[in-house]
Amino acid sequence: MKKLLLIPGILFFLCFSLFAGNEPAYRYYVDLDKVENDRLQVELIAPPIKSGSVAFYMPKIVPGTYTVYDFGRFVSDLKAFDQQGNAMQVERKDVNTWIIKDARRLHRLTYLVDDSDDDPGANQVFGMAGTNFEAGENITINTFGFFGYFDGMEFLPFEVTIDHPEEFYGSTALRDLDDASTRDLFRADDYHHLADSPMMYCRPDTVTIQVANAEVLVSVHSPKPDMNAKLLADAFEPLLLATRDFLGGRLPVDRYAFILYFRDPAKGITNGTGALEHSHSSFYYLPYFNPQAALPILKDIAAHEFFHILTPLNIHSKEIHYFDFNNPKMSRHLWLYEGVTEYFAGQVQAGAGLITFEHYLKKLEGKLADSQNNYQDELAFTKMSRKVLDKYPEQFGNVYQKGALIGMALDIELRRLSGGKYGLIDLMQDLSKKYGKDEPFRDKKLFDEIAALTFPEIKNFFKTYVGGDKPLPYEEIFRHIGVSYTPPQEVMEFTLGNVSLDFDQESSRLRVVDVSQTNAFGKALGYQAGDVILALNGQKVPSSGIQKFFNEAKAGMQEGQPFQVAVLRNDGNGGHKEIILSAPAQKTPKMTPPSLKALENPTGEQLKLRRAWLGERA
Ligand SMILES: [Zn+2]
């Protein structure tokens, strides 16, 4: 689906677009000054249509979201006209489809688009895939939520003209071909290219940085000035330089845009937040919070989105290349598109020393725990990918956890088999040379292709751990790089009963809010929801340092010795009474999370492989 021409130099790009005879077939027009009732009117001069009737589609789903959103539901009042301005017959076939009869006469379509941002419905569009109209403030155009296409005609070129308030600037990876200060003109090779190019209009806060061969735009809309383009460009630059080095000194794009919308929490944040990748840009819809606290998270997300320029842009299967916006087929390789991307986002930071090795192991520990606790570790990843829309939507989040760990395991395995010389990044470069943006691979053949490019043993790795249902052999994988892996273990430990507590800021008191998860000891004590915890074994609960106080209480427990909890309980007559809960202290079983630790005395071989894995080419 990512059919963007990669042509060096602005001039050549302009010449090519304007004079190569690639005349736009679709001509769209929107006036952003005219937001009415939270709606905008879209006008389309249609391409010539040769069939008797034609279907006009809005997308049911768009690349990268892996969720059915039905963008047609935000479109209303669609009208069709012939050259003379006579209204034509239109029938709405389903939420995303309009049938226009006698379509050879069709000249013009008009319709209204509502934004998805304040949609109260059940299937809310995540903000980074949505549209948002705040007149005078911000207009976010995720193009697939605005513009549609005719059946069988999605590969024709598009032109979009946008009139906008003078004080607004449109941030997008597309080039503005109109000099006027209140009009932008964009061209896209086809619908895939247009849908791949989000736009954000607002008062400009932008910084452009040059990273190797690429011009990188950082554009920010924030409710507070301390979150701004300068701050983020400074934060992203080391990351982009590290990515450039990781990719061998060049970036595979000449132009890239980070477009970030920070939501004022006072306006309410009802829909999902995050970021969505595109070939030449990424769009972020995030709650505003303290920039210093937000920066590490923003860097992680930006690193992830930026790495998508490798895959799926330059390496993808037919399912992605010919992405069907209204009847999508899913590829079996989410481990590649999302998993490897997520893995590289961490790897590049660790390799360049932007985070310490210990910090990196902590991040990997988090992925180990999440993938094992919250997802089906024994579900073949290929199977999950193919059926992610209908059968396994709740497993999708594992692409960022186990998907990344598959990338890591594959990387270490390639390094081991090649004596440190060849890693996953080399494989990705080889695959992008062999395929690239215009040449999709066959979904079923990828594992054979990779084995042929690398080592025959790799076929077995894929068959067992990616196409098969066997959990990854973490102990062995980490041993190769001198890191010990301790799987989750059952341990017996003292607890306070495993009740859920909340802290009342005003009274500085802890209250039991939920007893459904209490363990045997908690049940023996007999907590009730609403109990206020006053003292443990006669020691009053302090107003600060509560965790330390709890730890000391647990450390002082002895098996079988009475343990007392003083609580204030509702007496049923509008008052409270203090009562003492008491039970013999007992240990209860608990699973420890999986953990990683760098060996204190790794062998020379382990150390060599670890260095090669981290990209230290000694
Ligand atoms: Zn991603």
Short structural summary:
This protein has 618 residues and is an alpha+beta fold. Zinc ion binds at residues 277, 304, 308, 338, 341.
**Distance from first to last alpha carbon:** 39 Å
| Major β-sheet strand ordering | 5-4-8-2-1-12-14
Q: What percent of residues adopt helix (DSSP H or I)?
A: 25-40%
- Stretches where pLDDT is under 50 for at least 5 consecutive residues are 1-21
By DSSP, the count of extended strands is 30
Strand content: 25-35%
Radius of gyration: 28 Å
Largest sheet: 7 strands, mixed
**Residue-averaged pLDDT, rounded?**
91
Structural class of the secondary structure composition? alpha+beta
Bound molecules: zinc ion
The shape, in one word, is globular
Helix segment count?
16
